[in-house]
Here is the input.
Amino acid sequence: MSRRVDAGGSWIDRSKPLTFRFDGEEYEGFEGDTLASALLANGIIAGFTSPLLDRPRGVMTAGPEEPNAFVEISEPWFDAIVAATMVELVDGLVADPRAGVGRLPDAGEMPSVDAAHRHVHVETLVVGGGLAGRRAAAAAAKRGDRVMLVDERHRIDRPPDGVTVLPRTTALGVYDDGYVVAHERSATLERLWHVRATRVVLATGAQERFVAFAGNDRPGVMLASAAATYVERFGVLPGHRVAIFTTNDSGLESADAVRAGGADIVHTIGVGEDPSAAIEGVDLLLVSGGWNPNLTLWRSMGGGLRYSRRLATYRPDNVGPPWLEVVGSADGDGLPGSQAHWLEPADDYSEHFVDLQRDQTVADIAQALDAGLVSVEHVKRATYIGTAIDQGRTSGVLAAAIVNQLLGTGPDAQGPSGARPPTVPISYATIAGPDRGDLLDPIRRTRIHPWHEEQDAVFEDVGQWKRPRYFPRDGEDMDPAVARECLAIRNDAGVLDASTLGKIDVVGPDAAAFLDRMYTNRMSTLPVGSIRYGFMLGLDGMVADDGVAMRLGDDHFLVTTTTGNAAMVLDRFEEWLQTEWPGLRVYCTSVTEQWTDVAVAGPKAREVIAAVGTDIDLAAETFPFMTFRDGEMAGMPVRVARVSFTGELSYEILVDGRRGLELWKAVMSAGAPSGITAYGTEAMHVLRAEKGFVIVGQDTDGTVTPDDLGMGWIVRKDDSDFIGRRSLRRADALRDDRKQLVGLLPNELLPEGAQLVEEDTGPIPMPMFGHVTSSYASRTLDRPIALAMVERGRSRHGETLYAPLPGGTITAEIVPPVFYDPDGTRRDG
Amino acid sequence: MLLIRCPWCGPRDEVEFHYGGQAHVAYPEDAEALSDEEWADFLFMRDNPLGPFRERWYHVHGCRRWFNAVRDTSTHRFVATYRMDEEPPA
Here is the structure.
């Protein structure tokens, strides 16, 4: 039965009918309708159910405060749960009722959202497009401000000139210094606005208050102003035989509007008469319990409240931030005075609903108080009142007032519980916006990446870098591929794309003195042309990063960092230079991507480099370990460094980043007769573990000193200072029961992270003496190996530890951490 | 989100900055000469006042310069920002 009437309907266009589906049935509405007004127009009074008690519910409001009429939208966009009062009707809309709880659809079921993010700066942002908001916006525009006006409804009447007006846009949160995030949603777009405003005006209006009486949740009970709105804006008469229960004059005005739509007002009920008695005889019961300024955003920024006896509610107190102001009815202006009437006295309060969306009644509040709770915040958490999607818009002030009344305190003893953003639910997809998939985080690729892809390399993420983990051949899995790569380096030659290592150019008259302070070893004594491996500690003495420094000139170094710590190390350099030692003349520049680094390793490395062709003398006597030479290779200017992370003879070739792929191909082609094999990070990890070389961040965890790693030699003993030096003498750093790096020979492959205990069986919990930091199947040694941090580990070589695991206990013998070539005979080839 | 006035770049969004803790905590002239207690005091102990607080900020996604600020910890309001080589405002 249509409830559309000829009166009113200022928001709808009756010449433009629309078709939509609700709960499987097809209906018609008009352009300009909300889903709620179209449902009421079609006579759907009880289309919803309550979430816990399964009670029938109907549309109770005409705005964002709606506690009953929630729907899922599946066409033409997707929304898991939204109030029908806030859904603009469009042709083809498909909606289904949801009992207060949304549903997470399967990935394939959900249309993709191309949510854009927009960032704008304005002098004045006005939230709320009512009369007060439009006035504030117009005045600001007249002053010459850039002005934005947002309103969550789909229509803003008489928008002011010179103002960017955004209907369908909900301010989700107000943050420090005039930062506001707003969500714009229509059938065709979804946008998140990030607005920075010099001044934010909250013209968020007021919401009519509900009253707790028996059966106040029944379909046909509606806020009086909402019924007037349905008549005036949508030409919909929600009921014909109407009673009005009001504590204030606005209820009577709303009743007049409903009467003008064609209804009979059969009862007018004031305070002192129980409205629940009138429900049976009417098809619409209007309720007006007074008005609450809508102060969610004000309060989320720390704005205060003060109780108004005239309004029987809270108005903003003048303690918010200076850039934030509240105007119009949100400030209490023009609101009708109201009697302070919260609940209808009764013997049984179990159907006096307070929070309809949580199905919580006055009886539930009374139970919480009987349990000894006295704070509104505690009652909220005991009953969940105010925690539903509507965030207590209809229940917040009411619940606080009822607590005050039941406790026998004054009406202003406790205000409503706090509110926080977002004011309405939005999807994670909207928050993420375009920052998804490949745009989630920058992807860094080396210059050699195209070759890796051609070879079907399996990549792993190292920081933002894509590094080849291994290069499978003929459908190999990881284990055989890594074993093959490892053997190639130990027996012939391998080549690694090491370009991701962080590289920092450090130059200036005080560069050497600066690096002395940053590293545990002395860099100032390093001769030009030489390389030194160094540790960088935190002020707390713990290992923070490692790398090598090449001395390019008296005042010029190239420093390398681990791949993941490059930015951290550069930031650390800048911090000390700018904040502690501004007098040092040093300039640091990131040159990670300016150099491509091709690392050739293995007993045939020299043969490979010679075959590529270079004017550099490669003899071990003239080009020894830990030095570098500048020269030409395959027609390119290069810098070749003799460093080794595998224990084998190794040359790292640094070339102009842009020529990296060219050099790589030259190495692959010239090295083919020597059996050169491209290898990835996994083989690199195995080979370095065989040599007992630690990886900072894998074998260390921020609680490890150089001595813990058995690398006390890297800490200089002279009396010059370096970062972290003093901490190495702290009592904690000198404890004799610290965990120390050891090697483990387990009887089968250990999982990294496994805890180590002294007995193979025993009562749980067992004392833990250490943990596995690195673990690999060593093809070179043909057995599993591991590195571990073990209490007093260096004095326990030869002892046995156990790793109790779900699949059984693994036994491991403690050994020195260098498994392969402990004397370093292979590094010169 | 805070709006922070970098002394070189002007007002910028908080996301461009890193926080750097209390300002004017100088690295000791002679760290080795400090007792364990004095060193621990330098290393671990920082003020945590309610009200104006002098602190360091780093415009990491901007000019990459460190500067100092006075921020009211009870309101998040920046009273002043100033360069590393400037004296704190009275």
